[in-house]
């Protein structure tokens, strides 16, 4: 019985997280664009523990500038969610960043900005899997 409740709760958490992320990505996708300029980019290690042993994943360290209403801002965020990579994937992602990207900025607070609104596939997967697990947990409880 406790296991079924656990499945239900995990499903709901994943489902709600997917919905929330989908809303954020949609909102950022509607923000206006400003011409930007990459001022720094590199791949940096992110230490983590994996299955009881140390492993290294990688993340992008990026800084860019953009101008809104005559004021220059500096941004560091690539997407509205955190992304870690394997080294080769990180190198490819870094190479694909244009030197002069279009920056999506929050019109209510231009200091908040991202280079990309994000992929819609991850929220869709989270919503689907979360819904399946929540439904399974509920059915097992009945």
In a nutshell, what does this entry contain?
This protein has 142 residues and is of the alpha+beta class. Helix content is 42%, strand content 35%.
- The arrangement of helices and strands along the chain is HEEEHEEH
- The tally of helices reads 3
The end-to-end span amounts to 10 Å
Shape: elongated
Poorly predicted sequence stretches spanning 5 or more consecutive residues:
none
Beta content comes to 35-45%
Q: What structural category arises from helix and sheet content?
A: alpha+beta
Q: Order the strands across the largest sheet as they lie in space.
A: 3-2-1-4-5
How many structural units, i.e. domains?
2
Mean pLDDT: 91
Kindly state the number of beta strands.
Answer: 5
Residues in helix, %? 40-55%
The main pleated sheet reads as: 5 strands, antiparallel
Produce the secondary structure layout.
Elements: H1 2-29, E1 33-50, E2 53-68, E3 71-75, H2 87-96, E4 102-106, E5 109-114, H3 121-141
Antiparallel strand pairs: 1-2, 1-4, 2-3, 4-5
For the structure shown, list the relevant keywords:
142 residues, 3 helices, single chain, elongated, 2 domains, five-stranded antiparallel β-sheet
Task: Describe the protein.
Helix 1 (2-29) runs antiparallel to helix 3 (121-141). The protein is of the alpha+beta class and 142 residues long. It has helices spanning 2-29, 87-96, 121-141; strands at 33-50, 53-68, 71-75, 102-106, 109-114. It has 2 domains: 1-31 and 118-142; 33-116, no CATH class. A hairpin with a 2-residue loop joins strand 1 and strand 2 (53-68). It is 42% helix and 35% strand. The model has no long low-confidence stretch (mean pLDDT 91). The longest helix has 28 residues, at 2-29.
